[in-house]
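Hi Y.,

Following your request, here is the sequence exactly as I used it, all 358 residues.
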Amino acid sequence: MICKFCKSVIPAERIYGATAICEVCGQANMKPKISNPFVRWGLVAVITAAVAGTVYYSRHSILAAFNPAYALTIANLEEVQKIHERCLRGADHECLVAAYQRMIQNDPNDVSAKANLAFQLTTLKRFTDADPIYREILASGTGTYDLMAFHAVNLTGLGQRLDAIKWFEKSLGINPNLVDATQKLASLYVQEKRPAEAISLLQSFIYRFPSAAGSLSGDLSADLELFERAKPVERIRLVGFSDGHFALPLQLRENKTAELFMVDTGASVVSMPKSDIEKYWPELLKKSRPTQFSLADGSKIEAQVATLPLVKIGSWDFKNIEVAFCDSCARLAGMSLLKKLKMETSSDGELSTLTLSR
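Below is the corresponding structure, written out as tokens. Let me know if you'd prefer a different format.
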């Protein structure tokens, strides 16, 4: 080894590990590292190959992290599924659109991918893009309640309210347990100035699912006010579920808030709790007479009977309607009122309608 200070030769015995002490000038020299160009470039080649391999085999994961939509265009089907799952977890709707488009590109008959693509487009409010996809699937005869409900949402976005109502009704006819679809359908009824249908639908849903009362009672109260102010109509259409329960708003006294009664063709008279008589017609308490009614289970119930001077259904007036009342009586629109109306019923799956006219 040569001393870099005085250029003297440093013998081996003066080299201590990585340090060499020159015995001529006494300076400490660092032992130079052995540099073999073949070793160095070989190491560089190995590292480069490793990095290139990692990038190649992970290229879709890397692309998916920065631009998943582009990554999907060059990914194979296995990679598409992985990116799709990642997009689902992150609720990345644009990415999901690209994923389903890639699936459809691979299999043009993949109805599930087409339906999910339409759902994502609707979520992104790309209603015009989604519309032909819904129509293609439904025209093929493949229709599920969720597809119909999403189609109705999409039609609402396009401003086609009447068609949206039709498809919401079809969806609920298959699955009557959809609270979101029920609320959206009720809202469309109101927008079309058909509050009676909204009221009956919401109350029928609450009858089936009492726990939904908290989330639907606000809509119901607002719709009742709209019904009282609605313009005169020739027909009143009520909407309910297959259990046959239709809610009908009855105004028991002029300029008073309507109360909801369930339509009951098996009840001979209109019935209501005694508190209704005390609230709306207290003067009739002394004029009432005792009676006894038989219930569906064969039991008897003691009640009082009176004649209401006026009962209103929207703009329709009915005079001298016989009613029964007691502490435990329910609000039922019985035949003492219904016999004054024409009634037509229809059903479509789980959804039923009752149309009233004078």
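Residues 37-57 form the longest helix (21 residues).

Thanks again,
Q.
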